[in-house]
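Table 4 source record.
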Amino acid sequence: MAATSPPPSATVYARNLEERIKVPQLIESLTELFSEYGTIIDVVAKTNLKAKGQAFIVFDSVESAQKAIEEVQGFELFGKEMQLAFAKTRSDATVKRMGGEEEFESHKRRRLAEKDKKKAAEAAETAKLLKRANPSAPDSSSTARPIKASRGAGLKSSNPAGAAVIPDEYLPPNKILFVQNLPEGYDVESLTTIFGRYEGFREVRLVPGRTGIAFVEYESETGAIAAKETTAGMPLGGDAVIKVTYQRQ
């Protein structure tokens, strides 16, 4: 079955770009080239390895994007022919411009959730490949002792069969957050001040006998996603930087 093309939108997706060109220079060149076809709201190009050679050009209208795709398709930029198409999703700039702040925040949360789910799926696939490549590893269903559910989420297991687990950073969205690296003295009240600002906050739970960690629960994934994206890496006095991930299910 042939893949269906994305519906027309105001955002052009460009790929097969020269990866050795620095991002500022690439953005400047794309802006100069595509500005002939309409008003450009934003040009986005990333530096991470998976996104290299790609960019998004956001116009103020679908018509401008359509015209740009038709006339620039195959244009040689820095020695490589560009491949253009409509972007699969609306850009942040378009949503913010057309829908206002509330719709933009909702759009951003959905995008971040999809990103987290994709990362989790990729990590799970990598774990499967590692297991296939090492068939001599103990089978967790037969030789390994089960890990008790009472263990703190995200705590490292000593079970050798659990080596190929999904890293904390790639866990799928969850309504419960696992917070680590908390400075001494941070209690339920102080953590509620930080995490209680987000939609659907329920409670903070400390772990008896353990310092530096806590669980924060929300009514749904929406609040947890917003809290995680905002608080992860937050400094809490001195050199302490908290780590915030989704609870391991």
